[in-house]
Amino acid sequence: MKIYHNQSLKPYNTFGIAARCRQLIEIENEQEVPLLFEQKIFDSSYLIIGGGSNMLFTQDFDGTVICFRTKGIKKVAETEEHVWIEVAAGEEWADFVSFCIKNQYYGVENLVGIPGLVGSCPVQNIGAYSVEVKDVINQVYGYRIPTGEPFVLHHDDCQFAYRHSIFKSTLKGKCLISRVQFQLSKKEHYTITYQGLIEELKTRNCAITLANVSDAILTVRNRKLPDISKIGSAGSFFQNPVIEESQYEDLKVKFPQLITFPQNEGKVKLAAGQLIELSGMKGVREGDVGVYPNQALVIVNYGNATGKEVQIFYQKVQKKVAEMFGITIVPEVNIY
Questions:
Q1: CA 322 – CA 16 distance, rounded (Å)
Q2: Which CATH fold would you assign to the domain 232-335?
Q3: Where in the sequence numbering do the catalytic residues fall?
Q4: CATH tag, 2-68
Q5: pLDDT tens-digit series, residues 74-122
């Protein structure tokens, strides 16, 4: 493992926020994990991060930051229709998606272009273009804190929901995810329900293949989202709010253009990006922080915004939406 003291966290978060931590540990081999417990790292303040693509630092972290840099993608089982792939937590999500496309394994192609590491994907239940990672996760492996006891959680144990899992609730900060096992299809099938993707494929007039679908998704994605190597962001900043159907019925009288996604139990999901746009905040910039002009769901750091400045700004966005719609949009991003 590598240990750094008084470490800058700017390279460890895609928002590009300048914050520091007292100590940072990079785990390069899963066999190093027991050392964390032997050295009592978890007896004081700690924070476990992946690729830093879903977090906002509003201050320095007075503790130890732990991140996995372990590598490994291996096939552990196979049938005529399915294949099971085990992936180390430190693998780049993009590299795993590329591996699947190269090997003609179906299921994660809609999630191409999402930044971050594999170990983080179950936590947030990452999703895009009508697909969520829960659709392909079979098992999650890790270690419990503070005992260091290994665990295996099967799909149903993970309590997956929209941008949610057990790792964000009862197990938040209480485990280290070391590997994730995926069940993928060897039979050709696609999820092409997102309107922008349908239109892009129609424009291309190309054969429907893994490579063509993933490339089309990247094109659609890049039209709307900033290049994090040039503009800092954490992708979609807010969750799409889920409200009571009765509240929606009242809203649609005044806002008949509202985009909706029907849910169970008399609920309706709205598009947070549309609410932000209708509130007049799309493209608004204050200093180095603003709402991205091409996608209202994304808050960006144009250069040297501080975490506090981003926090003050996103709270202004929340206030605007609440004033217009009576709805509080909640950050999808983890705030520290």
A1: 28
A2: 3.90.78
A3: 163, 236, 332
A4: 3.30.43.10
A5: 999 999 999 999 999 999 999 999 999 999 999 999 999 999 999 999 9
